Amino acid sequence: MGNNIFQRAKEAVSNLVGKHDEQEHQHQNNPQHEQLSAQSNDFSNEDISVAENIISSAMADSSDAERQQLAELQKELDQTKNNSQQ
């Protein structure tokens, strides 16, 4: 059947990383709109908090292999969060 919370964590991080990558792509292809785009992130602090909470919840019900993947997802989320603040 699979671990639904684990799947939700993967989806949440994937969505945030995808939004960040899209924003970076727009900056590279259209530098004139960089100032406007910098003022409005494509994702909010609430989106990040939700993803972090899902990861945390998934840790409790996961196998060792899933926990390892969740730790990687947390690192990826942290990198995305740090890159969006620059």
Topology:
Elements: H1 4-29, H2 34-39, H3 45-60, H4 64-84
What characteristic shape results from the CA principal axes?
elongated
Determine the strand fraction and express it as a percent band.
Answer: under 5%
What are the segments in which pLDDT stays under 50 over at least 5 consecutive residues?
Answer: 35-40
Output the structural class: mainly alpha
Radius of gyration: 15 Å
InterPro entries: DUF3813 (IPR024217)
Protein name: DUF3813 domain-containing protein
Organism: Fictibacillus solisalsi
Region (Disordered): 16-86
List keywords for this structure.
elongated
Description:
The chain has 86 residues and is mainly alpha-helical. It has one domain (4-84). Helices cover 80% and strands 0% of the residues. The chain has four helices and no strands. It has helices at residues 4-29, 34-39, 45-60, 64-84. It is elongated and about 45 Å long. Mean pLDDT is 82; it is low at 35-40.
